Write the structure tokens for this entry.
Amino acid sequence: MGKQLNSESLRNRLKLRSFASEQKLLSSHVAAAQFFKEKQLRPGKIREHATRLLTSGILAGSLFLSAPTLLPSPSATPTERAVSLALPLQLNQQIKSALKFVLPEQIQPLNSDQETKISQILEQIYGLKAVASLENNKLNTDYGRMGAEQHLPRYPGDTAEAHGELIEKGITPGLGGWGYVADVETEKYYVAVQTLYLPDWKQRTQYYVDWYKFRRVVVVNPANGKVMVAAVADAGPADWTGKHFGGSPEVMAYLGINYGMQNHPVVLFFLDDPEKKIPLGPIEYNVKTGNPVLINKA
Amino acid sequence: MTKIFYDHLVVREEVTVELDKYSLAREEKEELIQLVDETLHHQILNTILTHLPKEKHREFLEKFHKAPHDESLLEYIKDFEEEIIKTAKKIKSDLLSEIKTSSRGH
């Protein structure tokens, strides 16, 4: 690993090949060219079209996905490991393509139809039961901008250096909304949510404090299809920031939103996993089957 | 990965394995794989339409558009599956050459 590739040159050459092969197809088969024009579909985008059919429910109950590949075992050959590593990218692409047709243009709370479709997509592809409302609890938004947070103290005297990774992000001078976050994984993959803006926060403060403490959520970056499980460990950000969620340094890094103004849109749902079988962190395979892809024959 | 009915005839893993040898950002790799996939679709469809009788084209394309995964579409290509496999192998070989050409110092 680590060999160098002139990716810009390769990208240009592959683009030329794709264009040339498309032109050859369309010029050789005029009736087919007319067909694709009528359907407003470029022939090379047929897999995206198939994904759209999936999200629109046309293929509901008759999903056909590629044959499963086992996660690499320690004795897997380099080829087997590389194939399995390639598949998460394809799952990311699938999520990204599917969400494109569900999410609204404006970053805003989702309607129930959008929430249902996204829940279905996450369950079909990753086996995750992710819901916008859990036990009659719902955040003020489930599609909003996530900003960068610092590391949270895990114990008195904790330092950013002691966290080992992304030290440059620093550590908060005070405690998180739920005090010290002693569990390493919980602190690593934490998010902040705006519990303070729940409509009845003042009336039911203790209930919400207990319910949201380390509540596990599913976070999706629609720009690249990356999905992870995180834990609520802080409250905020404030409304005036224009952001709706906060992400720990590791969350921001994995989702690929730790650049620029660091206020990129994400989808955030509750994880419905009462037995806590699904670990915190990135999700890159179907958690039900243990395979990178799901088969569900009608 | 959402399945297309002819995926089993096209071994694209060799190309993704080759790309995996290089230090590529995930987004870069994703884009390159997407371009590979598009080229394969163009060439496979070209082969199918070349060998399938013209009077069957519309019927095939309508069914393909409606359900790209549908294994019953294999009925249309059963007489020239070998041609599709040959086409896919040739494209794969060309794409692997492109990748090797683009590696620095090559």
About this structure: The two ends of chain A are 40 Å apart (CA to CA). Residues 78-100 of chain A form the longest helix (23 residues).
